[in-house]
Amino acid sequence: MQLVKAALFSASLVRTSTAADDTAFVTAAPHAGSATSDLYPPSGTSVDSVLFPPESEVGFPGPTPTGVQPAAIQTAAAYPYNRGPTNQFPLVAPQPHGQDATSDQFDITKYWGNLSPWYSLSSADYGLPDASPLAPEGCSVTQVHLLYRHGARYPTSGAAPAEFAEKIANATKEGLEVRGDLAFLSDWTYKLGGELLTPFGRSQEFLLGIQHRQLYGHLLNNFTEAGTIPVFRTESQDRMVKTTQNFAAGFFGVPEYLDQVSIEILVETAGVNNSGAPYEVCDNSNVASRGGIGNTMASKFAKNVFNATIERLNSQVSGLNFTTTDILAMLQLCSYETIALGYSAFCGLFSQEDFLNYEYFYDISFYYNNGPGSPVSAAQGKGYLQEFVARFTGEYPGAWSALNQTFDNSSTYFPLNQSIYADATHEVVVLDTLTAFNLTALFNGPPLSVTGNTRENSFVASKLVPFATHFTAQVLECSAYQPTKQIRFLVNDAVVPVSDSYTGCPADPHGLCSFDNVVSVLKDRIDEIDFDYDCFANYTAEEGIDYNGRAPRS
Fold first, then answer.
1. Rounded Cα distance, 224 and 238, in Å
2. CA-to-CA distance for 391 and 396, rounded, in angstroms?
3. Angle made by CA atoms 352, 358, 364, in degrees to the nearest 5
4. Does the pLDDT value for residue 20 go beyond 70?
5. Is the whole model's pTM more than 0.90, yes or no?
6. How far apart are CA 55 and CA 96, in angstroms?
């Protein structure tokens, strides 16, 4: 009760002093920077199914005839792109510092790197201005393979936001004063949990499931004919399990998903093979000078680009000095509080230039940690590459990667005859996989520079690794093509061309290429990725090099 009174009193102080004089310092409340949380449901509570029986016991369901399965991917006149404010509903994201409601609208959520909500990309960004995710005229989708990331979550354990909160709490003990834009810090507490899906994150996956049922529902008819149900895969972390459950709930309905799809949960822990968590069995992934090159390079870029903002914010605080590390932590708090709590006061502290630099910080990090600038990314993505090819060909995958052969050689856990596949993983693994697939159109241009964003490379982290990002392979029958069996790849609704990186694939306005040719190219790619060498050899990797995701050989 005393904490509540103190919070109300200090909040009153902030409103009074800033309203009267924005230059007056406000002393931080004793609880500023402390971690707070709520607990629900209350301990010892549960639903009483006797008092509140389920639908199956109540009866009287009314008429329940079913219609045909939706197949919008080949019947719709237009594609349902996820653009505009709908991709972030019900979040509130303010305009950057220095801009008001009358300024040109700048969507800050598109500049949060891997913390951005996913949105539909344009095929034109990758050289296919006339391509659509819809099946081209004369084509029908016969199989879909989906690899997708979990939805929005709380920060990972020990991340920068919690460290920043501890810094505020420590400064409060010594006497912290704030004013102006920072006045809210006088009463701010750390309200974020750890690693779990947020409500918004759950909604992302639920809607992603609905989207794919609307687009590809007709493919379920193949399961009906075979008398079986699909197997969807995920990892054992709580957010991964909940991601797949929410996706399945959107795809099949509630409670139908409970008995209409088998959810396979693969253990994610150190030393256990899992294509969805390859870094657990790839030693060089955790070596700073190899798998962590991106972290070093991103820090070099960030060292001086926020100086003006640091100076502005330091003029509004007494009792501590903000550093580049603090600025990045506050930018992350802007992202995390928004996706967890719906709004963050931290967002209004930063200018448009700050958000552009924040995005490029992530661009560098991911390009060199899990993209073509990494010496281990292709090796880490090799597991999913092998599994996709196995499903394409109906042949179980070989070894020499992070995949788990115990499960991948089983028709129960790794069926080869599904028309719909859906695997949930982490953003780093999605990017590893795109690199392993050698989809160079996504990284077209010179390697990213730590001296500044020249915008000469097509890679942008918020486009490829946002929350709920997804990589799709469509297998199609196209009567106007020879051979008629074709395949193409999409990332967040953008069709990705392969003609420049896949031998034997001619330029095609729809991104299509012969299925057999693509399988042959991918088999060659599997053979050229040396998992053992890239993950365990003692080599020297340099910063600023496009390695095509593979370790250098001296």
1. 31
2. 8
3. 135
4. no
5. yes
6. 49
